[in-house]
């Protein structure tokens, strides 16, 4: 069955040409940005030419299944789907692309012999054409929100069907896309299949021109807690269980300052929290901010121990007894952090950034306190509130007041843990629905892939 084609209007062609001109002109700026980021995350200095569509090396015969997971969250979601995808379509060969260093590092664990991992190309006509010409993918699977005009148009011209997996679209993102409809129109119309997390996401994506949209649920509800995380948490609890650990999970720029100000601006609040001997666990979202956040906490007069400084990966009882905070400056240990925490303050929700994925916290039995900004994960946030696995407050001051109240009521923690279990059980099944949708689409027939 041939893939539907949606011709570009003259205005759209002109807009794409202008877009291409601007992005091409910005390439030197991108190179400088990558060079700066490589100073803290060396992966950004690797294979820079790939960003501009310059890929080398001989490839085996047969088309790839291309999966794009731009960053860490998308790569973790892809990890939930991949084992079932490989089982459903034996012999498939994966082409895995990313845009960030954290996604790239996490993605390495997903590769099998015959798979290839590269950077996604910069969204220009030349780079995307080179990418498709070199790898010749049979199909493209894009995770969550990664829809770029030039890439989609290039795939349409090359006959590569595109599916947007675990798709989400917030009201804010919809408004932004509608303002740039001359570019977003070709991008979203060009998607062959869209598998949305919720009915609200589906309706917004249809407004942008997506043709075949199906609601299949959120892949992240199918998460399992790894044996490694449970073993690590068990080792840590031997020392950390002496005090209640309250985690600031995946904090973004400015949120640590909000926390410190709320902590120190109200003597009564500070006294209540000190009475509970709280140990704060601060885990920044982006690794390049680890040093900055550590310095910020120390400058506020708190004694902060870095996770990376633990000898043999275990906290020292004497050191931790006098510590006020731990900086979670490691990758791949988020589940262990949640497992040892009494509760977590959700990063990205106290600054107007839309929040972070709270489902992993629920899987680990860690209740969540959210700020007012959860628009990127509105459905999951609403379900968590409804079940009692999460509470929402208006600001950081209210969050710390709630922490003090919750620590004084042990039954609240137990009830919230049970609610987390219910939340996860009710949301499971998206992996199976994704596979069923791909199987049922004539554009994503994977029979014979890799043969």
Structure commentary:
α1 crosses α8, α3 (72-88) packs parallel to α4 and α5 crosses α6. This protein is of the alpha/beta class. It has two domains: 10-217 and 429-444, 3-Deoxy-D-manno-octulosonic-acid transferase, N-terminal domain (Rossmann fold), CATH 3.40.50; 227-427, 3-Layer(aba) Sandwich (Rossmann fold). It has 20 helices and 14 strands. The protein is globular, with a radius of gyration of 23 Å.
Strand and helix layout:
Blueprint: H1 10-25, H2 27-38, E1 65-68, H3 72-88, E2 94-98, H4 101-107, E3 116-119, H5 125-135, E4 139-143, H6 149-158, E5 162-167, H7 171-179, H8 181-189, E6 193-196, H9 199-207, E7 213-215, H10 227-240, E8 245-251, H11 255-264, H12 267-275, E9 279-284, H13 290-299, E10 304-306, H14 317-321, E11 325-327, H15 334-340, E12 343-346, H16 359-363, E13 368-370, H17 378-387, E14 390-392, H18 396-407, H19 410-427, H20 430-440
Parallel strand pairs: 1-2, 1-4, 2-3, 4-5, 5-6, 6-7, 8-9, 8-12, 9-11, 10-11, 12-13, 13-14
Helix pairs in contact: 1-8, 3-4, 3-20, 5-6, 6-8, 10-15
Q: Looking at this structure, what is the CATH superfamily of the largest domain?
A: 3-Deoxy-D-manno-octulosonic-acid transferase, N-terminal domain
Beta-strand content estimate: 5-15%
In order across it, which strands form the biggest sheet? 3-2-1-4-5-6-7
Query: Given this structure, which CATH class of the largest domain is correct?
Result: Alpha Beta
Mean pLDDT: 93
- According to CATH, the fold-level topology of the largest domain is Rossmann fold
- The number of helices is 20
- What's the N-to-C terminus distance? 21 Å
- Quantity of strands, as a count: 14
Low-pLDDT parts are none
Helix percentage range: 40-55%
Number of domains as seen in the coordinates: 2
- Major pleated sheet: 7 strands, parallel
Which geometry do the CA atoms define? Answer: globular
- Global Rg: 23 Å
CATH architect. name of the largest domain: 3-Layer(aba) Sandwich
């Amino acid at each position: 069955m041939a893939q539907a084609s949606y011709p570009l209007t003259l205005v759209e062609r002109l807009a794409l040409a202008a877009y291409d001109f601007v992005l091409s002109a910005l390439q030197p700026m991108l190179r400088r940005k990558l060079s700066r980021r490589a100073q803290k995350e060396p992966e950004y200095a690797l294979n820079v030419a790939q960003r501009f569509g310059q890929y080398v090396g001989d490839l085996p015969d047969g088309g790839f299944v291309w999966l794009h997971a731009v960053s860490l969250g998308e790569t973790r979601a892809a990890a939930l789907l991949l084992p079932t995808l490989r089982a459903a379509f034996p012999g498939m060969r994966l082409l895995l692309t990313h845009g960030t260093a954290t996604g790239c590092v996490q993605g390495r664990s997903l590769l099998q012999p015959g798979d290839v991992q590269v950077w996604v190309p910069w969204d220009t006509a030349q780079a995307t054409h080179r990418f498709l010409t070199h790898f010749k993918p049979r199909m493209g699977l894009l995770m969550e929100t990664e829809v770029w005009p030039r890439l989609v148009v290039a795939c349409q011209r090359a006959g590569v069907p595109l599916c947007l997996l675990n798709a989400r679209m917030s009201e804010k993102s919809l408004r932004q896309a509608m303002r740039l409809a001359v570019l977003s129109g070709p991008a979203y119309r060009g998607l062959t299949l869209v598998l949305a997390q919720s009915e609200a996401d589906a309706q917004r994506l249809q407004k942008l021109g997506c043709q075949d949209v199906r609601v299949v649920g959120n892949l992240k509800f199918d998460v399992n807690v790894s044996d490694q995380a449970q073993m690590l948490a068990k080792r840590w609890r031997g020392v950390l269980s002496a005090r209640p650990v309250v985690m600031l999970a995946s904090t973004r720029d400015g949120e640590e300052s909000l926390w410190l100000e709320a902590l120190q601006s109200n003597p009564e609040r500070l006294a209540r929290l000190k009475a509970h001997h709280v140990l704060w666990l601060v885990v920044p979202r982006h690794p390049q901010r680890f040093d900055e956040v550590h310095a910020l906490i120390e400058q506020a007069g708190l004694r902060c121990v870095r996770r990376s400084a633990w000898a043999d990966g275990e906290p020292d009882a004497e050191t931790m007894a006098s510590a006020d905070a731990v900086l979670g400056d490691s990758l791949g240990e988020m589940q262990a952090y949640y497992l040892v925490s009494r509760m977590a303050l959700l990063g990205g929700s106290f600054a107007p950034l839309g929040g972070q994925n709270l489902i992993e916290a629920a899987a680990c039995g860690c209740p969540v306190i959210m700020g007012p900004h959860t628009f990127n994960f509105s459905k999951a946030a609403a379900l968590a509130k409804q079940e009692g696995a999460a509470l929402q407050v208006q600001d950081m001051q209210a969050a710390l007041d709630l922490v003090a109240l919750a620590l004084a009521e042990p039954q609240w923690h137990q009830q919230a843990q049970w609610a987390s279990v219910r939340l996860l059980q009710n949301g499971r099944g998206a992996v199976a629905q994704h596979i069923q949708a791909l199987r049922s689409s004539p554009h994503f027939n994977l029979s014979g892939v890799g043969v």
